Amino acid sequence: MKKILLVLITFLLVSPVVSAANLELKKKVGDYDVIALLDKNPPVIGKNNLSIEIKDKSGKAVSDAKVTVEYGMPAMPGMPPHNAKKNTEFKNGKYFALIEFSMRGAWNIDLKIDRGSKISTAKFTVDVQ
């Protein structure tokens, strides 16, 4: 009985770590399907890796866009807004950026896709822990 209880407690303690996979955010924006992955779920204060996959309407990966990440938290009583902007780097079919959240709470993330003469924006909200 003690062994079963020990195994059960161990499973309960380890399972949140195992299930803390990437946070996947999906959005259809114009002709694009956008999938953004944060390496922590939930995102945390500090550094978080963001990868972005963009596909056109035919399902082909978009590799010729300039993608920027604008993220922030609106002003709150007694606190100014927090805003940041990061350029992405394209490699292996995805766009990458390192974003850094400075406090807990709801953060807005705007992925700006500049391709040709058209800018499309995928908007997400995440809850930083």
Structural notes for this entry:
This protein is mostly beta strands and 129 residues long. 14% of the residues lie in helices and 55% in strands. A five-stranded antiparallel β-sheet has the order 1-2-3-7-6, with no helix packed on it. A four-stranded antiparallel β-sheet has the order 5-4-8-9, with no helix packed on it. A hairpin with a 2-residue loop joins strand 6 (89-91) and strand 7. It is globular.
Short description:
The chain has one helix at residues 2-19; strands at 23-29, 32-38, 46-55, 66-73, 82-87, 89-91, 94-101, 105-115, 118-128.
List the helices and strands and how they pair.
Blueprint lengths: L1 H18 L3 E7 L2 E7 L7 E10 L10 E8 L8 E6 L1 E3 L2 E8 L3 E11 L2 E11 L1
Antiparallel strand pairs: 1-2, 2-3, 3-7, 4-5, 4-8, 6-7, 8-9
Strand content: over 45%
Count up the helices. 1
What are the low-pLDDT stretches, counting only 5+ consecutive residues below 50?
14-19
What is the strand tally? 9
Give the terminus-to-terminus CA distance.
37 Å
